[in-house]
Design goal:
The complex is a heterodimer of chains A (182) and B (440). Chain A has a domain of 101 residues. Chain A is 55% helix and 2% strand. Chain A is mainly alpha-helical and 182 residues long. In chain A, helix 4 packs across helix 6. Chain B is α+β, with helices and mostly antiparallel strands. Chain B has two domains: 164 residues, Lipoxygenase-1, CATH 2.60.60; 269 residues, no CATH class. Chain B has eleven helices and 16 strands. In chain B, a hairpin with an 8-residue loop joins strand 10 and strand 11. Chain B is elongated, with a radius of gyration of 25 Å. The chains are: A mainly alpha (182), B alpha+beta (440). Chains A and B meet through helix 1, helix 2, helix 5, helix 6 and helix 7 of A and helix 2, strand 3, helix 3, helix 4 and helix 5 of B. Strand 1 of chain A pairs antiparallel with strand 3 of chain B, so a sheet runs across the interface.
């Protein structure tokens, strides 16, 4: 579907919704039809309702980390506003910090790359131990993948992250024995 | 008597591979985990390293800490990146731009789209505006084509273990330590698992290494396999060539329950969404096959010991290369002439061929013996190995591989190790008191 056709599709869909009227009333609707929503307005609404994340899309790889805790401010906010417990949030912070460092690690330095991988790994293991896998709304696997996605929310960040992954091609890593939480 | 003569006499007196000490210390203050089975996973196509770890963590949840035979299980993943993964970023962006520039800068949607767009963000988008369903479908169509293309390319040029020094070194040490090996592979991981299996068989027999193939991208099988009929990625490969037979019929996408991670996969290929989905027969089979492998795999001969950390030296041919470990604070210099240190031991020396029975140092698991500080690990071309590639791997009992380095050997230097490869730091966590090891 081309962009023009897509916009027409949205307009048509919104118009049809506007024509639906109130099924419970016999009176003909006197209100003027709701103007169709643009895609920008739809996205804006989703962001306001917290159904899409509002993220730092600055040009730099690292983004804004005003308190220098190794986690981008927007991700910091995302975690702190979530309904996870204190211990769980600490685990989410640990893995987020690891993900963030993967964007800037020197990929020609394998020792450094492996160190980042170990830090992320310990963070993931910690999230699994604190969050668990049984709850639909709070599952360790889902939340870690969400943090991975939040970290790589611009093209430059995503490409940097994939380069880091490529550097790990052919490596071997172990799940942590014992407590991996910091 | 010069050193070469000393070594020559030693060579005549003892076998080409000398085992100096075979006792693994698991004392009262043992700080190592004693694992009998290695559960090694090989990830699927277009998987990040973090996702490979997540998949293995779910397998650990299913199979637990001990095998049906009572062995402790050591979980490791051998990561393989999909060539061209990064190219899909461009395709993804173009697809979104063609249709809707508003979301085209939202790269946080990328990984969710790769998994079929079942996360909350894509769900919210497609619910708010039905037209986004078509956007997502278009992206998924591209993903399917790209995955099939990635796998077809890999099949045409399968990986060899020779290109994967770290994984090769890891498998070599496991076989030497007498570990039972169970390889679990998904999707493209099957090609890598096959290469790993072939290499393992140069060290041990098939009784000591078992493979479970999940959604195999390769027609070559070295063990039991599970393949769903509605796996659209493998079905795509079937059009281009031979694939393994289908083992399970699964429900269509619209009536298929969500998987182990509460997500669905429209392509029918995901490990957690399909093959470990507790509502599908595939998961019952995968679990049974893995349990069977864990129950029947046999331990090979144990040649070297586990340690708090270990250093393993191999090289790619004949010659005599030596491993030298300098223990902390001016402590012992551990090598073939002096195999017993204050903290550790050189428990295997090799004087003829580095492709079998590597040189091996292990640091004691006994906290009363293990010295804190920096251990320097170095290598010498003692004789006859000029031009060979030597590989040294440092691994820890509780964390797997810390690092792997190759060096091309120059002239012979006898007992002088001129290649200093690793500084291994053993310390204690100030808060927990736990022993830690890292590279400096």
């Amino acid at each position: 579907m081309k962009r023009e056709a897509f916009i027409l599709y949205l307009l048509l869909a919104s118009t049809l919704v506007g024509c639906g009227g109130d099924k419970g009333s016999d009176e003909p609707s006197k209100s003027t039809p709701t103007p169709p929503k643009t895609t920008a307005a739809i996205i804006d609404d989703l962001e306001k309702e917290g159904k899409l994340p509002v993220l730092d899309r600055t040009n730099s790889i690292v983004g804004v980390d005003s308190n220098s805790n190794g986690i981008r401010d927007d991700i910091d906010g995302y975690i702190s506003k979530s309904s996870y417990t204190g211990d769980q949030k600490k685990a989410l912070n640990q893995v987020s910090k690891g993900f963030q460092s993967s964007l800037t690690v020197d990929i020609t330095d394998m020792q450094a790359v492996k160190k980042v991988s170990k830090d992320i790994g310990k963070g993931i293991d910690c999230v699994f131990s604190k969050v668990g896998v049984d709850a639909v709304d709070k599952s360790a696997g889902k939340v870690v993948q969400e943090l991975e996605s939040l970290t790589t929310n611009t093209k430059a960040r995503l490409l940097a992250y994939l380069k880091y992954n490529k550097a790990l091609d052919g490596t071997s890593s172990a799940l942590t024995e014992g407590d991996s939480c910091e | 008597m010069n050193k070469i003569k000393q070594k020559f006499i030693l060579f005549l007196l003892i076998p080409s591979v000398s085992v100096f000490s075979m006792s693994t210390v698991f004392a009262a203050d043992d700080i190592c985990t004693n694992n009998g089975v290695v559960f090694a996973s090989f990830n699927g196509v277009q998987t990040t390293e973090a996702q490979a770890r997540i998949n293995l963590l779910y397998l650990k949840v299913i199979h637990g800490r001990t095998s049906p035979k009572g062995d402790n299980i050591q979980y490791e993943y051998l990561y393989n990146y999909t060539e061209g993964f990064e190219d899909f970023v461009e395709t993804f962006e173009q697809r979104l731009k063609e249709q809707d520039s508003i979301v085209s800068n939202k790269f946080e949607l990328f990984f969710d789209a790769l998994n079929g767009g079942n996360g909350s963000w894509w769900r919210n988008l497609t619910t708010a505006a039905v037209a986004y369903k078509e956007v997502l479908q278009s992206v998924i169509d591209q993903i399917q084509a790209q995955k099939i293309n990635n796998l077809t390319t890999l099949l045409a040029n399968p990986p060899t273990i020779q290109n994967y020094a770290e994984q090769k070194g890891r498998i070599l040490e496991w076989t030497q330590q007498g570990k039972k090996l169970v390889f679990v592979a998904h999707s493209q991981g099957n090609l890598f698992a096959n290469a790993a299996y072939d290499y393992a068989l140069t060290q041990v027999t098939s009784k000591s290494v078992k493979v479970i193939h999940i959604a195999p991208a390769s027609p070559k099988l070295n063990g039991t396999h599970v393949l769903a009929d509605k796996d659209l990625v493998i079905n795509g490969l079937r059009v281009a060539g031979t694939v393994a037979r289908i083992t399970d019929t699964i429900p269509g996408y619209l009536v298929r329950p969500a998987g182990l991670n509460f997500l669905e996969d429209i392509l029918g290929h995901g490990l957690l969404e399909i093959y470990l989905n507790p509502h599908l027969t595939t998961s019952t089979k995968v679990k049974a096959y893995i349990n069977d492998a864990l129950s029947t795999v046999e331990a090979p001969e144990k040649k070297v010991s586990d340690g708090f950390f270990t250093a393993t030296l191999s090289w790619n041919g004949s010659g005599d290369v030596d491993l030298h470990t300098f223990e902390p604070s001016g402590g012992a210099h551990v090598y073939y002439q002096s195999p017993t240190g204050n903290s550790g031991f050189l428990d295997q020396d090799n004087t003829t061929n580095g492709t079998v029975d590597p040189e091996h140092y292990y640091a004691s698991c006994d906290a009363s013996k293990l010295k804190l500080g920096t251990y320097r690990v170095a290598v010498a071309n003692y004789a006859g190995a000029t031009g060979r590639t030597a590989t040294v791997q440092i691994a820890s009992a509780n964390g797997g591989v810390l690092g792997t380095k190759n060096v091309t050997l120059g002239r012979e230097t006898g007992d002088t190790p001129i290649y200093s490869l690793f500084n291994v730091v053993v310390g204690k966590n100030a808060q927990t008191g736990a022993y830690e090891v890292s590279l400096n």
